[in-house]
Amino acid sequence: MADNLQWAPTATQLPLLALLLIAIGTGSVSTDLTRGTAPTTWLTAASRRTAFVAKICVASLMVTATALATALIAGVAGALALLLGGMPQPSWGETLPALLRFVLVMACWPAVAASVAALVRNRTATVLVLVLWPLIIERAAGVLLGRLLGADSLPGVLPFAAARAAMSGAPDTGDGADAALERTLLGSGLDPWTGVVVHALFAFAIGAAGAWAYSRRDAA
User: Fold this and answer.
1) How many Å apart are CA 211 and CA 203, to the nearest integer?
2) What is the Cα–Cα distance from 187 to 81, expressed in whole angstroms?
3) C-alpha angle 184/21/66, rounded to 5°?
4) d(CA 75, CA 69)
């Protein structure tokens, strides 16, 4: 039930909420870079690096609140639908780990989005990268690198494959045919919590690169 409410890997390969949150992660950074405004649009900071970290922290808080509210609304709607349909309610307490993983992955999106904006420095290109990277670019690059390096498991440990594994319960559902099919569609066989760690480390790494690119404008 939690998987269906918050994540549809067979349909989109990434949460719709992530697409809606791109603006939160990139807005202040791209405006600063394209218009040469003050070090931050939300608060005054001593340096551009501090301002960049502040933007990510504020955006992550906004994203976390949005993700929790979205999941809560979806859960209430699902419970009402089951109630009106005369069907039994699922064990909602068992959905909490999946909800926590969902929120953690969503909280990483501002770091990724803001860093891509700082590195690319073009709003249109930034949005294209953030949309196409999880859907096409990473999968194609993973297959190519996997064949070149002889590592068939490589595509499954890439950042957004790890995020898909984190937000799916497939590895928790056993070794049945449905779980195997979902692992294939996700492109990753990582344990959900391992997927969270991999994606968080990726967000930290690209966040460091984004902070470097953003702070270099001080010397320009």
Assistant:
1) 12
2) 32
3) 100
4) 10
* Predicted local distance difference test score (pLDDT) of residue 97: 86
pLDDT at position 155? 76
Q: Which two tokens stand for residue 55?
A: 């933007």
CA-based torsion, 4, 69, 59, 127: positive or negative: positive
Q: What are the backbone dihedrals phi and psi of residue 46, each rounded to the nearest 5 degrees, phi first? A: -75, -25
Q: At what angle do helices 48-84 and 22-35 cross, to 10 degrees?
A: 150
Q: Two tokens at 62?
A: 């906004």
- pLDDT given at position 9: 47
- Decide: 50 and 218 in contact? Cβ < 8 Å: no
Give the Cα separation of 99 and 132 in Å (integer): 25
Angle subtended at Cα 209 by Cα 203 and Cα 213, rounded to the nearest 5 degrees: 135
Residue count of the chain, please give it.
220
Name the stretches of the chain with pLDDT < 50: 1-12, 38-42, 170-173, 219-220
- Give me the pLDDT at residue 70, please: 79
Q: Per-residue b/e over 65-88, b at no fewer than 16 CB within 10 Å?
A: ebbeebbeeebeebeeeeeeeeee
Rounded CA gap, 90 and 5, in Å?
Answer: 12
State the Rg of the chain over Cα.
Answer: 19
Helix H or strand E segment including 25: helix 22-35
